[in-house]
Specification:
- The protein is an alpha+beta fold.
- The strands form three sheets. Strands 5-6-8-7 form a four-stranded antiparallel beta sheet. The chain has a two-stranded antiparallel sheet with strand order 1-4.
- The longest helix is centred in the middle third of the chain and has 35 residues.
- The protein starts with 12 loop residues before the first strand and ends in a 21-residue tail after the last strand.
- The structure holds flavin mononucleotide.
Length: 306
């Protein structure tokens, strides 16, 4: 047994060409699964692996002589590529510039996002830390305003059918069970969200995903760490920003489409394979809004342990 994901249940195979090994031991240093040992200046399998090889590939990536090949869990030697030069890495200043210029964009020009740009976003997002390889993050791509809008209309209709969840009688009934904070959240945030998403859509105004020309929904399988899809979505957002797009994360859809038959039907219609603990939409498009200033944002607290 290995660490399971939806794509892999077995550990990867570690193939060693001993003749090539120069005994440097770099693979021993990087393997967090204790798979290797050096005997007589050559690597061998240690036989005290912790979980079985998860195919992180670090041993292949540090080996200077090509001694190791990992096969399985969706990885092989063919996935190795030459690292771009360190000199080509963006400086802190250029990264900070991009981060400072980012704003949540909700107004888009009537311009499609080109297929090459979509592919670049997906390529960059797939470099995100994958939790346990192979990644269990799934992505649903809505590659036109029409498709984005159609989802919003379906979602709005779906919310209309479960609107009793924010009715006065239901909130009053539930208060003793889910407590003060949840009650306040339901009345102060969730109920107005229902009102806007349902009533405004009927008037033609899409507050759900703002008629963006591109949307991507990141979600995980039941095996996934809940953070994985959020990390991937963040990478996608940053990639979009680097390509000159405006972006916005949308957290308000995912929690509503997890439970019940109606939610399942909506998920099935859009090819969403699982309900999942976390998931996030990101919308992209060429921004209509030009900001003249930024605003400084802060964490709630930065506490240095003494
Ligand atoms: C996890 C997450 C979920 C969000 N969900 C929504 C959303 O559903 N609708 C929306 O209009 N904005 C959403 N936002 C955008 C925030 O409202 C936005 O970050 C905030 O207004 C601050 O603006 P800024 O991103 O331009 O600094 C979300 C942001 C995050 C990080």
């Amino acid at each position: 047994m290995a660490i399971p994901t939806s794509r892999a249940k077995e550990p990867a195979k570690i193939l060693i060409n001993t003749e090539l090994c120069n005994g440097c031991g770099k693979c021993v240093e990087v393997c967090t699964d204790f798979n290797f040992k050096i005997v007589d200046h050559k690597i061998q399998l240690s036989n005290h692996s912790l979980f079985g090889c998860v195919a992180c590939g670090h041993c292949m990536m540090v080996c200077p002589t090509g001694t190791i090949a990992i096969e399985g869990r969706e990885l092989s030697e063919n996935d190795l590529f030459e690292l771009p030069s360190k000199d080509a890495v963006p400086s802190y200043e250029s990264l900070l510039t991009m981060l400072q210029r980012r704003r949540s964009t909700r107004e888009f020009k009537e311009i499609d996002v080109e297929e090459t740009v979509i592919q670049k976003i997906l390529d960059a997002a797939q470099t995100a830390p994958m939790g346990l390889p192979p990644s269990d993050v799934h992505v649903i791509v809505f590659d036109s305003k029409t498709k984005v809008r159609a989802f919003a209309e379906d979602f709005s209709k779906y919310l209309s059918g479960i609107r009793w969840m924010v009715s006065k009688w239901f909130l009053t009934l539930m208060r003793p069970f889910w407590g003060k904070a949840n009650d306040e959240m339901m009345r102060g945030f969730i109920k107005p969200v229902f009102d806007i998403y349902v009533d405004e859509m009927k008037k033609g105004k899409n507050w759900i995903n703002y008629d963006a020309p591109l949307a991507m929904y990141f979600y995980g399988s039941p095996y996934t760490d809940p953070a994985d899809s959020i990390v991937a979505a963040t990478y996608a957002m940053l990639a979009g920003e680097s390509l000159g797009l405006g972006t916005c994360m949308l957290g308000a859809v995912h929690p509503f489409i997890q439970y019940g038959k109606k939610a399942r039907r909506l998920r099935e219609k859009y090819g969403i394979k699982y309900p999942s603990r976390e998931g996030l939409f990101v919308i992209f498009g060429y921004s209509k809004v030009h900001y003249k200033k930024g605003v400084k944002r802060t964490f709630a607290d930065i506490h240095r342990v003494g």
